[in-house]
Hints:
Blueprint: E1 34-39, H1 43-48, E2 55-59, E3 65-70, H2 75-81, E4 87-93, E5 98-104, E6 119-124, E7 127-134, E8 145-150, E9 155-160, E10 172-178, E11 181-189, H3 193-198, E12 203-208, H4 214-232
Antiparallel strand pairs: 1-2, 1-12, 2-3, 3-4, 4-5, 5-6, 6-7, 7-8, 8-9, 9-10, 10-11, 11-12
Amino acid sequence: MEPITTQPLTQFAMTPLAGQHIPPGLEYLAQLDQVLIQQIISLCELLSGCEAKNKYILKNSMGQEFLTAEEENDFCSRQCCGNIRGFEMPFVDNNGAEVLRISRPLRCNSCCTPCCNQEMEIFSYGQLLGSMHQEWNFWMPMGTTYTVKNASGDRVFTIVAPCCPCSCGSDVVFEVIGSEGNVGTIRRTWKGCCTECFTDADNFCVTFSLQMDVRHKALILGAAFLIDFIYFETNQQ
């Protein structure tokens, strides 16, 4: 994928899709069928090897920034717990208002029991939108599928990880499966050899249908961050 330059956010049509209730603050997301997630490279982390707070910029397909997100936790959690660490992550729009928040508890990463699988909840203005859960099975204890549930606990999507999620010169694609089949993708994009070797900063491209319920879009978007931590958040010394 070509590098994307940030442009000022221009006014966007905010007409809600017919028959769809849009939670406050998510109107802009209702107009998108693709979101680009760019993790900001931390110079301090690059030079010291100490894990810094993850920071992200979210852009539309034209490279216009519309949300920023930053991990909230303490220094010890980041250094001692690695990619299983718990955190809160607010998503703030260009006016400084928080429109989304993901909450991930600290969970042990063990292949021995299903009680240690990873999970995360997604909120909008304090209201639960849904959650994501890593699935466990006997043959693949760490799981290659993830269940996305709505606020009522009903399954709405299954995210299927590739058999080999390592990135060796190509993108890594996670398929989002709904009741009607494939409804989207979470694609971790290849950044080039130098960036891959010396930093764990990642870029993602999340796609879904334009007509999809905006709450479901937010769930898929939030799932990309848990996938980032589970598969790609490694400290490159």
